[in-house]
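Z., the sequence and structure:
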Amino acid sequence: MHTDTLTLYELNQLVKEALTLTMPDEYWVEAEISELREVRGHCYMELVQKDPHNHIPLAKASAKCWKNRWAYLGPYFERTAGQTLRAGLKVRAKVYAHFHESYGFSWIINDLDPTFTLGDMARKRREIILQLKAEGVFDLQRELSLPLFAQRIAVVSSEQAAGYGDFYRQLKNNQLGLQFHVSLFPAVMQGEQTESSIVDALNRINSRIEDFDAVVLIRGGGATSDLSSFDSLLLAENVANFPLPVITGIGHDRDESILDMVACIRVKTPTAAATLLVEHLAEVYHRVVKAQEKLSHLVRHRMEMEGMRLERMTEKIPVLFSLVKSRREERMTQLSLRLQHAVKERIQQEKQYVDRLELQIPSLIHRKITQEGHRITMLTQRSQAQDPAVLLKRGYSITLHRGRVVHDAKVLQPGDVLETRVEKGQITSIVK
């Protein structure tokens, strides 16, 4: 081995010594967590810095928080920020450089600033809200209302969640015995898959949109820190644009997610969502019962009024009948007299007409006979003018073939015998 050659371990020791000498201090650093896992009480993270315009990573580094320190920092961060550390959060951490001969370089986290993460989360929430308002969808759900008979309910929830069980029991065991038809669309309600899972459930509901009156999105049973999953632009856009009213029951009284803000109705818990639906349908039921009672009362009152009116009419019928009968008899008498007068007048008119015709008949007959005589004379003259003998006297001739007049020479054949009649005699000829 050359005297100027180092082993890898020796080289790593030099790096360690150089880092210890040149970077002995602790540094506050801002970065985004891209990965996070806990192993035997230690917390291992991958930190990343992204370009603000295209989100391409500009820098990456590994970071660790040892068990004895993580046991304090983890709960402290959760209490202050209202959620656990997870991938996707931006953090401000106090770190120092650490190089291990066998495991390489990493930053060791010694402190965290939860207020920085809270500020970044608040900024992101503001940006999402502003974008939803700019798109004009922030208030779309509040323009919808629960149908009067909202009984067909699509529920988006984890199937094993205690909140879903509470919701179902509250809905089914209502005091009025109102009937609801619940269809569960299972979804992940906490963690990184929350967004895509709920969007998929909404898409499945939308494919059967005619089967439901409303959508209930409930969580229940999760920690308050898991509410950050519902501060999602994609999820908020899907809920805001959904064609059915969406009821959310995913948080607590002091926590309001963006999903709560864009929903048609927001309640605290799954049980509260069930109570809302029961009270809504109960109110409709009471309105129907009240309307039924009012209708029955109106019908009874109308029947009583009509009964009294019928009694009064019954009492008046004999008098009215006698009056009508007298009027009808008087009218019949008048009509009879008018008819007799009209018949006599018409007979007189027709007699006068017949008398006039008797006076006109002789002259009409004479005129008709004269007209017909003239017409017969003209027909006789016309018939005589068309007599073949007269035509022959004028120099015309008639050619016959087998006793029939020849009109077209093309029908004749050579050898046919023709007979031509003239004024005086006839001529026989043969066609060549």
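Residues 29 and 138 are 35 Å apart (CA to CA). The longest strand covers residues 27-39.

Let me know what you think.
H.
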